[in-house]
Structures are given as C-alpha cells and as structure tokens.
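Protocol step 4 of 6: structure prediction from sequence.
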Amino acid sequence: MKKFVASILLFLAPVLLVMGTFGFVVYQSGEWRTEEEIAQRVIAGEPAFLGLAYRDNRQYYKHLVADGKAADLLVLGSSRSMQFSSRFFTQPSFYNAGGGANFAHEYRFFLENISPESLPDTLILVLDQYYFQDGWSPKEAWPTLGYEHYEFNGSDALLRVIKDWAIGKYSLRDAFFPQPNTYGIAAVGRGSGFYADGSYCYGNLMDHPERGTDVGFHDSFDRIIRGTERFEWADEVYEPAVEEIKNLLDFCKEHEIQVVGVLPPYAPSVYNRMMESGKYGYLNKLPDVLGELMQSYGFELFDFTNMSQTRDDEYVDGYHGGDRVYARLTLELAEKSRILAGRINVDYLTRALETETNPLRLSA
C-alpha cells in the first residue's frame, strides 16, 4: 500500500509542482484582490497600480473611487479618456474615471450614482465620436445599467495564468517579485494598469508596439472597409445620443458642474482613411451639433478628432492615443479653455514633450 501511495505521489508530483507554482503566481500577483479593497486603498491616499487580467471591473472600480475621492476635477469617458494624468494639471483634487462610460447614456448614470457631496466642480467629458451614429448605439432602448462586484474565480484564473505564461505574456520572475503596491497579472507581467489617479499605463505595449493587435493599423483599416466595430458608416448625427448628452448637461447645470467637452483623436492615417472613404459624414457635423449644445449651457467643446500635429507611432491603435498625444491635447486646452484656465501644468507638459519619454513615466 505504501509503495502504491508513493507511486501515485511520484506520478502526481510534476502536476502538483506546476499547479503550486502557478497558484503562487496568482496569489503573489494580487490577481485575486477585490476592486473594493484596492478602491479603499486609493481613497485613503495609498499608492496602487491595478491591472487585473481576468476580470474587467473598470466601471465598478472607477465608480467606487470617484465616489470616495470626491475629486474637484473629474475626467469621464471610455478608454479613450484614460491618458489624462493628474500630472497634467495643477488641480490637486483630480481623478480620471475613464472607463466609466461606454455609451452616451452611461455618463449621466455614472454621475447620478455618486453621492451629491462627491460630485466634481469641473468635468472633462470625453465624447467618443461613434457614440453619435446609429450603427454603434443601441437600436431599441438604452441598456439597463448597474455596478456590481465580480467574484474571483480561482480555478479559471489558474488555467488562464498557465496559458498566458506559456505564450509569453509574463515571466515567472516578474510574477514572483512584483513591484510594491502592484496588483494583477496585467500590472505585474505587462506593466499595464490604472494608477491611483485613475490614468492608465499601456506598459510594455508602448515600448513594443509590434505586440499590439493593430500593428500598422491593419485592424482599423479593415473595420473602415467593413464599417464595423466603432467604425460604422454614418452620414447623420444620431439624435437620441445627442438627447442623452442634453440630459447629462441638464444634470451638470443643476449641480453646478462646469463641463469641458473633448472629442478625442484618431491616428492621423486612420482619420485620413475615414475621410477618403466618404462614409463618415457625421464626423464633420458632430462638432457643430455638440458645440452649439455645450455653448447653450455656458460650457465648452473642443474638437481633437484630427490632430495632424501628432504622429501615427504615438498611438496605441487607430483610435487610442498614447500619453504624448494627450499631453499635446492638454497643452492646447491650456491655451483655449476658459474653464480650465490656470489649472493645467504647462511647465510639466512642455518638459515632458521635449523628451522622448512617456509623459506618465516622468517624475513630476
């Protein structure tokens, strides 16, 4: 019997070693941490860099932190707003809630579910252009929203962490010896995640763009040809989405929130390809439609859809600008925005752009 047990254990030893090794990776990386725990650390002023690989809880996480921090200057939008950093501003009370709104109706929902005393004085509202064409927007009714906790699934994480190591997404060395206050496989292995101010770092992808999913913008160009996945064709601005923004501005006016609207940039060659196709007429009409709406409330809108002064290699993909793109964008806001006057760190941004370094990695 002892020999049989010994044989079984000997047979299982490699399996147990593998499972134990990668179980330790999951534990050591902090992938199992909850969004509530990290949010509380950030709200308390502790440093935290969060990059979960197997749960996408960004809306819930950003909502928790925004409600707890009660920042005077708040950024709200999709992933195209995440490159605004606290270092770009002189305003000490800042939070980037980028990822909190992915359709036109989600902005107001996000703010309505923040405690009244936690609402910002000023809102930088990043409005993705494709929200305003009917191909991307929901066809019948705006989906019901809600914020919820996603339970950590240990067995799923264990299988996926083995697979990700096998295809080279992270090294065991990085996972075994993570940087302090770093949580999640994406943060530990790729250097990608959210800083405590809510801004996002793309990590290794900025240093190795050849590892991305849109190298040479081939994926974006293909979407333009097919008219799909945020590149749907449209000639007219989708009025139901404009109405949702009007409702949002009513809320902001009622709560004395100043709004600076931003239409974010596309990579220059992607924008040019869209214009050459002749199938995106709504892009030319949108700045006037939203600009007039914003102005009627005493708010501002700035159109950065085509930032020809930027380079293609400063973009992560066809419609996500990197840190240098948003540093230039913010410098333009410093010159043009009445609402943000004196609240932008021009010296820091100028110094950052004079180097070849990622502005989010520079010391303030």
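Step 5 (inspection) to follow. Residues 135 and 232 are 6 Å apart (CA to CA).
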